[in-house]
Task: inverse folding
């Protein structure tokens, strides 16, 4: 009996959709009729996630990763409808082509497609109709949201200072004083970063649990919700990008209680406009400057990346400190940092001592629980024994199935060992030569800073700067 996988997805709307259990039952009934078995370990389920893009579909990506393996345990992926697999025709074609290279087929149990060129054409038409439905649905949702904003109804989760009760904003008595403090402090001359730091020291946190920073304060000061208005970007982008003067922003009277009076609001807006005009000549108009350690050095206190500071002497500073959410300055001369990193690389290569960074889970291909998969393979082995003992399988069939399962267990164990101890597979002498080749390249004055940065990124995961002890800790890729 062949082994297959099942992919089940339920969207946000859940209109005209079978429940996950119903989809799985229909798939297993179909599989049984086609002499195919769908084990629990190969059932992949994404709940409440759109198929417009694959980025947020964790189980989908885990399934694709498993199907791409050299010895994939299944050669067929069953779906209730092709729209469960993808509503984006371009992505659907890419993933199906990728799967076909590994001889894995995607089969819709409710949309049978004949073999050959004509069948491929029918499948493309179905995919196009699914994408067309998504486009129409998106347009209808946007139109409905715009009408809702026009009536002054809440459009999103409540901003800091409000709570949502029965689809209406109400002042949050614990947060409203914070909003009034922010507006009063700014109107009286305090800066964005100063206000953010002060609130952070008071223990104030955002709804996501993060300390305030200068960008949050700026966003609050520009938000008309605090004077009883509703703001909505008809293109879904302008406000989130802080393009407050964009023609796509709709502002209407809301039905909620304002936290700020118009006199204070106007005073704050005048100062914001004055500050913008005063410092507009200092705003970056060209592309960001490249430097050798760009994006590689992190703050030892908060983990944020060190960014280039606009100072007379080229230097780096903690990104969160610059925004007011990190309390410790990590200012570092770029020239000194470059020299220290080169010296550290030379010493690491000479001693063949490399501090390898721990492997981080990839969101697109989540880390696989090999212990669970091995346990399930052993369960399959027991089922094979039972099938042989009960006369369902012949001795030859049992021997073949047993060999396939044991081979798969051995493969999974090897994969597990490789992922748990990746550094055991590294030839340190060869790695040292590779590091020295990079050192020679970054010491070459004719090589651009961008090229040096790209070269370092092939061996360095990140660098942690501990200012208190004046140390740079380099973490290499395994």
Result:
């Amino acid at each position: 009996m062949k082994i297959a996988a099942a992919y089940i997805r339920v969207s946000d709307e859940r209109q005209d959709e079978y429940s996950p259990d119903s989809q799985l039952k229909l798939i297993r009934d179909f599989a049984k009729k086609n002499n195919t078995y769908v084990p629990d370990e190969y059932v992949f389920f994404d709940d409440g996630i759109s198929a417009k893009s694959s980025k947020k579909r964790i189980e989908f990506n885990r399934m694709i990763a498993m199907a791409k393996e050299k010895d994939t345990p299944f050669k067929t992926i069953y779906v209730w409808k092709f729209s469960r697999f993808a509503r984006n025709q371009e992505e659907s074609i890419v993933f199906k082509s990728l799967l076909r290279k590994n001889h894995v087929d995607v089969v819709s149990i409710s949309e049978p497609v004949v073999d050959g060129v004509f069948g491929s054409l029918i499948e493309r038409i179905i995919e196009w109709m699914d994408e067309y439905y998504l486009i129409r649905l998106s347009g209808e949702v946007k139109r409905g949201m715009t009408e809702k904003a026009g009536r002054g109804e809440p459009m999103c989760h409540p901003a800091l200072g409000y709570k949502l009760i029965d689809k209406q904003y109400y002042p949050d008595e614990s947060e409203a004083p914070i909003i009034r403090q922010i507006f009063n402090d700014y109107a009286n001359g305090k800066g964005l970063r100063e206000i953010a730091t002060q609130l952070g020291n008071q223990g104030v946190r955002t709804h996501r649990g993060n300390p305030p920073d200068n960008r949050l304060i700026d966003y609050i000061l520009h938000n008309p919700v605090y004077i009883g208005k509703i703001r909505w970007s008809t293109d879904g982008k302008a406000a989130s990008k802080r393009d407050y003067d964009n023609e796509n922003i709709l502002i209407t009277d809301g039905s909620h209680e304002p936290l700020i009076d118009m006199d204070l609001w106007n005073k704050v807006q005048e100062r914001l406009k004055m500050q913008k005009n005063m410092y507009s000549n200092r705003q970056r108009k060209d592309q960001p400057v490249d430097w050798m350690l760009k994006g590689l050095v992190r703050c030892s206190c908060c983990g944020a990346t060190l960014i280039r500071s606009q100072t007379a002497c080229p230097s780096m500073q903690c990104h969160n400190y610059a925004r007011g959410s990190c309390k410790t300055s990590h200012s570092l001369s770029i020239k000194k940092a470059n020299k220290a990193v080169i010296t550290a690389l030379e010493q690491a290569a000479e001693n063949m001592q490399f501090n390898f960074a721990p492997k981080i889970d990839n969101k697109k291909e989540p880390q696989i629980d090999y212990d669970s998969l091995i346990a399930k393979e052993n369960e399959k082995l027991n089922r094979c024994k039972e099938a042989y003992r009960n006369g369902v399988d012949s001795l030859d069939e049992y021997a073949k199935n047993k060999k396939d399962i044991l081979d798969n267990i051995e493969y999974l164990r090897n994969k597990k060992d490789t992922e748990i101890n990746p550094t055991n597979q590294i030839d340190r002498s060869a790695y040292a030569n590779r590091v020295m080749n990079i050192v020679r390249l970054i010491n070459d004055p004719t090589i651009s800073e961008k090229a040096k940065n790209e070269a370092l990124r092939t061996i360095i995961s990140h660098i942690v700067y501990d200012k208190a002890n004046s140390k740079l800790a380099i973490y290499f890729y395994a």
